[in-house]
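lol forgot to send this yesterday, sorry. struct tokens for the thing we talked abt
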């Protein structure tokens, strides 16, 4: 009888092992405090406003080119 191929043998971890490991990893996380969350939120909002203003400006500048040259209207 041939020996079992080790690549084919599948070991089943204990039930709930994934959940226990996930909880253990979450306990290691350095969670931000309220001030850090507020600061991060403000940074994201300001960045969105800046990118939005840039894209709006680029749209306004390129609008005649798209209308007259690309669309030919």
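and heres what i got for the seq, position by position
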């Amino acid at each position: 009888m041939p020996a079992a191929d080790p690549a084919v043998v599948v070991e089943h971890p204990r039930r709930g092992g994934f959940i226990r490991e996930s909880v253990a990893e979450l306990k290691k996380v350095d969670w931000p405090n309220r001030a850090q969350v507020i600061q991060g939120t403000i940074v994201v909002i300001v960045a969105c406003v800046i990118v939005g203003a840039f894209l709006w400006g680029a749209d306004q500048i390129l609008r005649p080119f798209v209308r007259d040259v690309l669309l030919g209207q």
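The radius of gyration is 28 Å. anyway ping me if u want another try
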